[in-house]
Prior knowledge:
The complex is a heterodimer of chains A (114) and B (114). Chain A is an all-beta fold and 114 residues long. Chain A is built from no helices and 11 strands. Chain A has strands at residues 4-7, 10-13, 19-25, 31-38, 42-51, 54-57, 65-66, 76-78, 87-94, 104-105, 109-113. Chain A starts with a strand and ends with a strand. The relative contact order of chain A is 0.33. Chain B has no helices and 12 strands. Chain B has strands at residues 3-6, 11-14, 19-21, 23-26, 32-38, 44-50, 56-59, 62-65, 75-77, 86-93, 103-104, 108-113. In chain B, the strands form 3 sheets. In chain B, strands 2, 5, 6, 10, 11 and 12 form a 6-stranded mixed β-sheet that branches. In chain B, strands 3-9-8-7 form a 4-stranded antiparallel β-sheet, with no helix packed on it. A two-stranded antiparallel sheet of chain B has the order 1-4. In chain B, a hairpin with a 5-residue loop joins strand 5 (32-38) and strand 6 (44-50). The mean pLDDT of chain B is 92. The chains are: A mainly beta (114), B mainly beta (114).
Amino acid sequence: EAQVTQNPRYLITVTGKKLTVTCSQNMNHEYMSWYRQDPGLGLRQIYYSMNVEVTDKGDVPEGYKVSRKEKRNFPLILESPSPNQTSLYFCASKSQGTMNTEAFFGQGTRLTVV
Amino acid sequence: GDSVTQMEGPVTLSEEAFLTINCTYTATGYPSLFWYVQYPGEGLQLLLKATKADDKGSNKGFEATYRKETTSFHLEKGSVQVSDSAVYFCALSDSGGSNYKLTFGKGTLLTVNP
Lengths: 114, 114
């Protein structure tokens, strides 16, 4: 089954404690991306990756890092989380093709920073 | 920059009622347009898409037509069911560069009562 898997689904952490949210896809997609979803704001892109070792900033990259060492994995790293990073996070992947192809989303990670 | 404006919710309907969720967009290029649906506790799933002017996307009884002259992509369904209760996101993907970013509206929560 084609899927994007994120872990953990829920996470409560304290300010300043480094954390990583993992994302893995089994569709051999080149393109992967992270979004955050906040009430009244919809989804906003944090980072994206066109392929292995190729990453770039999205619209709201501050406070986040990513890496793409393998095609299937695209972890999101919060080096020093702050309460304003409390949000619902989604990882997405799609084939390189064109902008018309479907993006597949993970089930989301609800992060609370206290 | 690109933007998507969609009808603010929440929208509450009775089963078998007609649904319209309005969506308009601003884009610099020739975008592809999408409707994604988010069921409670799940990630986003593609509902339908249209890639050029006058295209009609359809799926599960939902329809939307790409109207370039009015920059709109309104979602419609003739007879909603309780199982259609979800958050609906209008989104676009523009042809700008190599980032297949999806620009989302803020989402519309639909509740269908029996």
